[in-house]
From TrEMBL:
Quaternary context: Homodimer.
Superkingdom per UniProt: Bacteria
Segments crossing the lipid bilayer: none
Residues noted as binding substrate in the record, renumbered to the chain: Y113
Full protein name: tRNA pseudouridine synthase A
Gene: truA
Function: Formation of pseudouridine at positions 38, 39 and 40 in the anticodon stem and loop of transfer RNAs.
PANTHER family: PSEUDOURIDYLATE SYNTHASE, TRNA PSEUDOURIDINE SYNTHASE-LIKE 1
A Pfam match: PseudoU_synth_1
EC number: 5.4.99.12
Catalytic reactions of this protein: uridine(38/39/40) in tRNA = pseudouridine(38/39/40) in tRNA
Domain (Pseudouridine synthase I TruA alpha/beta): residue spans on this chain: 8-107, 146-249
Amino acid sequence: MEWIRYKMIVEYDGTHFAGFQIQTHDRTVQGEIQKALKIMTKGTKVIIYGSGRTDSGVHAKGQVIHFDYPFMIPAKNMQRALNSLTTDEIFVKDVSIVETDFHARYNTSGKKYQYRIDLNEISDPFKRMYTLHHPYRIDMEKLENALKDIEGKHDFSSFCASNSGRENKVRTVYEASVIKDVFNNELIFTFRGNGFLYNMVRIFVGTLLQIANGLRPADEIKRLLAVQDRDEAGPTAKPQGLYLMEVYYKASEAVKDSDHQEGIVVEKQVQNELDHSVK
């Protein structure tokens, strides 16, 4: 039997999942997709492999998975079948048939995450699962300067969960930026790099908000990079504001992402329109 390898880009609402990776007693994204594939194969178990795990409550717009399937189905038919069999919390955005040496996790060259902050004074019940409510003052200049200190190649031990093991904690962050969604009164952080440690983005956000609030000095990121101690950094921000946006398989794509520049242009255009309307 010749098995066919499929690559998929999947988005999901992580609110009611215990993360991506399959677990014995809890609902997960991997478990739901494998359940659908087992129906399609009439009982043959198909194991999917993701580009990485996302925690309970974390969302994805561009998670990448691969799996081997026991017979050929056109990519579009595979997409339709899975979207009809999985819960509405999961949507398969793209399907392609790839060479058998492709691996969703081991072939990655980088990832992009975003984290959304709701700045409104009153918490919006319709945002509570998709943003972190933070109705406190934000010094944007301090925030933007602190983000610049994150960029580059560093040992990020201070920004990694204490229980993550002894792995090498040196990573390169190509982009650490923030824009303000003036219509929704939200901050949108973007982090793009060649790899991320466990809880790294959420610890970034928890620390950056304290800098923006004045609870930590403006140059705190530099100190934390030097001390390499998780206990010195800020809290781990809640999972619901975090989104895995894209997974890269070419180093050039990870280093330079055109979406960032487009986002800045859109934000500036919106701000200019608002300024003109006030005048």
